[in-house]
Amino acid sequence: MERVLVSACLMGRRVRYDGGAKTSADARLAAWREEGRLVPFCPEVEGGLPTPRPAAEIEGGVSGAAVLSGAARVLTADGSDVTAEFLAGARSALAVARSFGIRVAVLKEGSPSCGSLTVYDGTFRGRRTPGQGVTTALLELNGIRVFTEDHVAEADAYLRTLGP
Q1: Is the pLDDT of residue 164 over 70?
Q2: In which element (H, E) is residue 46 found?
């Protein structure tokens, strides 16, 4: 059975920066959960950040790949540098994915860790820009396809192409 890495907040775990969850009502995720396919994970918590914690964004509104290469940092609104924690969380996510042979992830869109289409622009004004979070960038660089919580049907279709 093909396992799927999933953002813990989508499974109802209160791990988001604000101490909340973003529980998904997607029927496919619920079915995967029942099948034992899902591996819930929060890279920010696993990277050592508390819950709740200050919101963080990638400086300059660039993608997680820039953080991985050392060209950008992840900062909180007060300027605290949390790059090391984001990198540690991304590395932990990759290690967990490898340990389960995971090739597909469904992660929370918009997050500086998990976003796969957009991230916040680094100004803390609620504006998004195209790009990936740090964890998503690392997973994709290592051949793991990442889908948003709004694209679970596409993740399911991709899983079917992987075979039994």
Answers
A1: no
A2: helix 43-46
